[in-house]
Design goal:
CATH class: Alpha Beta
Number of helices: 3
Helix content: 40-55%
Strand order of the largest sheet: 1-2-3
Radius of gyration: 12 Å
Structural class: alpha+beta
Distance between the termini: 21 Å
Oligomer: single chain
Number of domains: 1
Order of helices and strands: HEEHHE
Number of strands: 3
Length: about 80
């Protein structure tokens, strides 16, 4: 799941070298995505549409593995 989010984020941003994805496992998988300050708008999108689409893809990938996952986009 971490690789999926990293691939999507690097495809969207202008500075793919600054994409950082961390995953913490527990009862629920929590993934934190951090990108360059200039790229925040590209990852979040108008009204959060892009971020919500990424969350939907993550949820589907997690369901296929029998898990639950959340995505947090953090400020650089």
């Amino acid at each position: 799941m971490k690789d999926l989010i990293e691939y999507i984020a690097k495809s969207l941003v202008e500075h793919p070298e600054e994409v950082s994805v961390t995953q913490s496992n527990g009862g629920r998988v929590r993934i934190e995505l951090s990108v360059a300050k200039d790229d925040m708008g590209r990852v979040i999108g108008k009204g959060g549409k892009v971020a919500n689409s990424i969350r939907t893809l993550l949820r589907v990938a997690a369901e296929r593995q029998g898990k639950q996952a959340t995505l947090d986009v953090t400020e650089p």
